[in-house]
Amino acid sequence: MTNLIDLEELKMLAPAGYHIAVRMGFVFPAEEHNGMPADWVRHYTSRGFMMQDPILRWAYAETGYTRWSALSGHDPFGILDQARGFGLAFGVAISLRDTPADGPAATQQSNRSFASFARLDREFDQSEINRLQDILKARHLALKPPTNLTEAELEALRYARDGMLLKEIAHKLGVSEGAIKQRLKSAKIKLDARNSTHSIAKATQFGLI
């Protein structure tokens, strides 16, 4: 896997905390890093803030970046004020999605990534924001769904996902078990997966099957 996020660099850039969701799928992101304070995570989760969070609402609707301070007028539940009590005084949210120049996305649900970064002492300066944008974009592109899987490979993955054995898939498609093994192996390589189970999970996450 390339372009792995350097969590130590993130801790330096956002010492109060960070949350990154890369390529949101139907329910979960392809990759997530939550470095927010544990007490804040518990407070946030127990009160069901997700649906009212002005940061998330901005991230799903916009692209680019915004400082948390610019969202204070869109926070009727006072979530940002409560965050200050947990050391999250200043922050920046970043959101991006695929563009036509990036090539076709597998699904509209899996082409957005977003992140939120926090400091206690001051606003993020422009150079820090630029770097954080670069970090998120690099990971977003690294986890881009592959577009080179053949229909035969996807078909084999679909049947494997549904619990069919190799011999059953081979009989269904009228080919040898060796051919099915080769299709699954090729799909695993293209998906940068560890094994067939991981291939199925990634292909499902990307909306390919």
Structure, explained:
This protein has about 210 residues and is α+β, with helices and mostly antiparallel strands. It has a five-stranded antiparallel sheet with strand order 2-1-5-4-3, sandwiched between helices. β1 and β2 form a beta hairpin. α6 crosses α8, α6 packs across α9 and α7 packs across α8. The radius of gyration is 20 Å and the shape is elongated. About 5% of the residues have low confidence.
Quick recap:
With 209 residues, this protein is α+β, with helices and mostly antiparallel strands.
The main β sheet shows up as: 5 strands, antiparallel
Shape: elongated
The number of distinct helices, counting runs of at least 4 residues, comes to 9
What's the number of extended β-strand segments? 5
Runs with pLDDT <50, length 5+? 104-109
Rg over C-alpha atoms, rounded to the nearest angstrom: 20 Å
From N to C, what is the helix and strand string?
A: HEEHHEHEEHHHHH
Q: What is the average of the pLDDT values?
A: 91
Helix content estimate: 40-55%
Strand content: 15-25%
**Strand order across the largest sheet:** 2-1-5-4-3
Distance between the termini: 22 Å
**Which class do the helix and strand fractions yield?**
alpha+beta
